[in-house]
């Protein structure tokens, strides 16, 4: 009897089409957000009382417990589910954690220094994008939607201000840990890990996948008037991961972006610096042009270094 040639076992995830994978990941993420949101609401109600729970939902910043309640809500209802969802998806659904999470540290350490340089030099470009974004307006027929978006963003600003009232260095370090590190890890595992990998397999074009993921990343934050700069950040993060093969490069970049904003805000609140973090008219046109040129050079060096080439060779 002639035996059929044996075949190597196929990964479980290969049986699920990329489109269906995207649906599953989105559904899983939404489910985790709902479940963790209910858990967070229960904890806030038990610890601080139902009045504080109501004030947290309505962003009533007059409540003395609102800061702690908002941090509880942020960590349990947002950061935690965004971290758990891609882990469950990669480990138990597609069963390819190495490919979908890319949690390897096998990359040239000099990439971290190049990322630091890119993030520093990108400040003028981000300022331009913020200013352009602020001038965007929806058509007159969508004026109602624009008003809703502005109201939502104003509420988000109020919540952020309540959470980031930092009176001590310890307050600042706690904010750096949560907003900087934990948020960076959770969002990068979800977007540049699982979702970007799905988009690459779906589109078969890594560049398109990076841009699509960046747009979805920005849309997820539901902040229309900072949409463009967040897309740009998402594109940077996407290329960092694609060229290095490691999620930790984008986590590092994401952490630098968030932590820098926290530290600058703390220094401004303590009157250690006079530069208002909300001032978006710091640089001039020469700075904008120079920023673009330096970023392109640094990205070129990053790509070549990640691929094992001389940084200045094509």
UniProtKB/TrEMBL annotation:
Record has Membrane as a keyword: yes
CAAX prenyl protease 2/Lysostaphin resistance protein A-like domain: residues covered: 171-259
TM helices/strands, residue ranges: 23-48, 68-89, 110-130, 172-191, 211-241, 247-268, 288-305
Keywords per UniProt: Membrane, Transmembrane, Transmembrane helix
Record flagged with keyword Transit peptide: no
A Pfam family this chain is assigned to: Rce1-like
Name the UniProt record assigns to this protein: Lysostaphin resistance A-like protein
UniProt organism field: Mucilaginibacter angelicae
């Amino acid at each position: 009897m002639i035996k059929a040639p044996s075949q190597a076992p196929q990964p479980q995830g290969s049986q699920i089409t990329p489109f269906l994978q995207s649906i599953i990941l989105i559904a899983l993420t939404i489910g985790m957000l709902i479940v963790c949101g209910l858990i967070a609401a229960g904890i806030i109600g038990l610890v601080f009382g139902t009045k504080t729970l109501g004030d947290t939902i309505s962003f009533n910043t007059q409540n003395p417990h609102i800061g702690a309640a908002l941090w509880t809500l942020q960590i349990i209802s947002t950061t935690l589910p965004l971290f758990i969802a891609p882990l469950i998806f990669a480990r138990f659904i597609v069963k390819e954690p190495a490919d979908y999470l890319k949690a390897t540290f096998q990359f040239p350490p000099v990439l971290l220094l190049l990322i630091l340089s890119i993030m520093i030099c990108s400040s003028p470009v981000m300022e331009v994008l913020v200013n352009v974004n602020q001038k965007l307006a929806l058509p007159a027929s969508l004026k109602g939607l624009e008003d809703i978006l502005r109201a939502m963003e104003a509420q988000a600003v109020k919540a952020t201000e309540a959470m980031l009232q930092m009176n001590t260095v310890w307050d600042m370090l706690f904010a750096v840990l949560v907003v900087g590190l934990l948020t960076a890890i959770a969002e990068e595992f979800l977007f540049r890990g699982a979702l970007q990998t799905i988009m690459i397999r779906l589109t078969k074009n890594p560049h398109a996948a990076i841009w699509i993921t960046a747009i979805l990343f920005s849309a997820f934050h539901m902040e229309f008037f900072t949409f463009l700069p967040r897309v740009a950040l998402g594109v940077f993060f996407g290329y960092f991961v694609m060229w290095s093969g490691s999620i930790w490069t984008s986590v590092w970049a994401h952490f630098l972006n968030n932590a820098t904003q926290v530290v600058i805000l703390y220094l401004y609140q303590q009157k250690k610096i006079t530069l208002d973090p909300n001032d978006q008219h710091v640089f001039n046109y020469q700075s904008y042009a120079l920023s673009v040129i330096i970023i392109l050079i640094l990205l070129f060096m990053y790509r070549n270094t990640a691929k094992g080439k001389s940084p200045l060779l094509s």
